[in-house]
Amino acid sequence: xxxxxxxxxxxxxxxxxxxxxxxxIYKTARKWSKDVDTxxxxxxxxxxxxxxxxxAKPLRFCFWLFALLGATPQxxxxxxxxxTGIVTDAWEIWKKNSEQLxxx
Length: 104
Fold this sequence. Notes:
Helix content is 26%, strand content 11%. The chain has helices at residues 59-69, 86-101; strands at residues 2-5, 21-24, 42-44.
């Protein structure tokens, strides 16, 4: 399990506690290699705004998730909840630029 921590999150007044993190349950795609950079078990990234759908994930969150999974450009990602299409779009960017995006 990992965590997405949101330094800014929208919530209704009177909501206690404020929900500023989400659990991320994952299973790696393959065994970790010693050649791969260490990926943190959390990311701090604000929520997205005005993406047309509540719950749309930020691009950096998607890149972190791909790194957390140990994904490679040869893998296939199927977005089960394609609402805004951001995960699919992020995957296409990741596949083309994964070496430069390995910053987690």
